[in-house]
């Protein structure tokens, strides 16, 4: 397994619209394993292929308490949705930024597993939020896109500042 590089906002590649997975082969299995490892290493609960610069419709997540129930959704589709919930969201591609986003409370999703077998699930709560957040990545949308342009600009500036500080610290220290 290998850890993958996660793209960060405002990288334009994050706005790419992904296409369906067509080959359920060994390469796909490796990608799912690598994405799962990358998600755990970054302490995330979800990761879309778009975030690792692979523009195919798949996402991994683990919303279990012990982070021991990894799941994969390939070519996911929301068949129905109802209710509303709003949750303070963060994103591995927008590090250190959290904002409240309104999403459906319940969703019915169909997807394929890694062998290409279709399944359907009814999800609610955090699991439903996570699938909706990751599916947004697959159409090139980030949670900060739900914010007002003014707030989004503040996020952009904050991230620039964080990167500058990190670069300065790296230059001042011996990083081995
Ligand atoms: Zn995200």
Keywords:
about 180 residues, alpha+beta, Peptide Deformylase, five-stranded antiparallel β-sheet, two-stranded antiparallel sheet, about 30% helix, binds zinc ion
User: How many distinct helices?
Assistant: 3
User: What topology, given as strand order, has the largest sheet?
Assistant: 1-2-3-6-7
Shape descriptor reads globular
User: What is the helix/strand order?
Assistant: HEEEEEEEHH
The CATH C-level class name: Alpha Beta
Walkthrough of the structure:
The chain has three helices and seven strands; from the N terminus they run αβββββββαα. The protein has 176 residues and is of the alpha+beta class. A five-stranded antiparallel beta sheet has the order 1-2-3-6-7. Strands 4-5 form a two-stranded antiparallel ribbon. The radius of gyration is 17 Å and the shape is globular. It is 31% helix and 24% strand. It has one domain (12-146): Alpha-Beta Complex (Peptide Deformylase). The chain binds zinc ion (ZN). The site of zinc ion has 5 residues, from helix 2.
Secondary structure topology:
Layout: H1 26-41, E1 46-48, E2 58-61, E3 71-82, E4 85-89, E5 99-103, E6 106-112, E7 118-124, H2 125-138, H3 149-172
Antiparallel strand pairs: 1-2, 2-3, 3-6, 4-5, 6-7
Question: What's this model, at a glance?
Answer:
The protein contains three helices and seven strands; from the N terminus they run αβββββββαα.
């Amino acid at each position: 397994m290998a850890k993958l590089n996660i793209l960060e906002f405002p990288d334009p590649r994050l706005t790419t619209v992904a296409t369906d997975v067509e080959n359920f082969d060994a390469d796909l299995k490796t990608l799912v394993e690598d994405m799962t490892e990358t998600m755990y290493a970054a302490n995330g609960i979800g990761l879309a292929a778009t975030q690792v610069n692979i523009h195919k419709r798949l996402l991994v997540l683990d919303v279990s308490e012990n982070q021991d129930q990894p799941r994969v959704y390939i070519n996911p589709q929301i068949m129905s949705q109802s209710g509303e919930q709003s949750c303070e969201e963060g994103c591995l591609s927008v590090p250190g930024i959290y904002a409240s986003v309104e999403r459906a409370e319940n969703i019915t999703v169909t997807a394929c597993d890694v062998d290409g077998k279709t399944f359907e699930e009814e999800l609610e709560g955090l699991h439903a939020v996570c699938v909706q957040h990751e599916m947004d990545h697959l159409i090139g949308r980030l949670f900060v896109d739900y914010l007002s342009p003014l707030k989004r600009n503040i996020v952009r500036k904050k991230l620039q500042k964080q990167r500058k500080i990190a670069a300065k610290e790296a230059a001042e220290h011996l990083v081995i």
